[in-house]
Amino acid sequence: MCTKRVRHRLAVLQHVLLAAVATTLLTAVPAVAAPAAKLGACGPGQLCLWPKAEFRGPAWTHELADTDIESCVALPPGTSAESLANRTGRPVTTYQSAECAETGEFETYPGRGGGTWVPQSQYKVRAFKIWER
Fold it and tell me: What pLDDT, in 10s, does the model give residues 13-29?
């Protein structure tokens, strides 16, 4: 009976030591941090779209006061956006199609919790919808 206790205690001790060694090894290796991306300037309550990736170029800014909820809003003809920030407090769907057609690419971004910044869209954004919560 004593040998069973001893073996059990040794097994527990072995697991504790292995966990401590693993934790030490994982925390001892310095992490290489990626450089922080500069976020585009976009005020609270706004949806901001930039024509170039990484928030470059003059931004188009939309607010709830001048945008119909759940309506398709096309960017000016012949233009598109490659980066965006949603600070509306509501979900926003961006569309590859200028008519908000779901046959092309589309993605919905949350607006709560400070907003969503997208430095590089997976497609050229040509239209968007702001949704009711």
Answer: 343 333 333 333 323 33
Q: Quote the CA–CA distance of 37 and 119 in Å, as a whole number.
A: 8
| Helix (H), strand (E) at residue 34 | none
Calculate the alpha carbon distances from 3 to 7, 9, 10, 103 in Å.
6, 10, 10, 70
| 122 and 64 in a common domain | yes
Give all strands (DSSP E) within the chain, no chain letters: 46-50, 60-63, 73-74, 83-86, 92-95, 106-109, 116-118, 127-130
- Residues 90, 59, single domain; the answer is yes
Say if residue 27 is in the same domain as residue 50: no
Question: pTM score > 0.85 for this model?
Answer: no
CA 73 – CA 100 distance, rounded (Å): 8
Domain with 5, as residue range(s), is 1-32
* Inside any domain, residue 12: yes
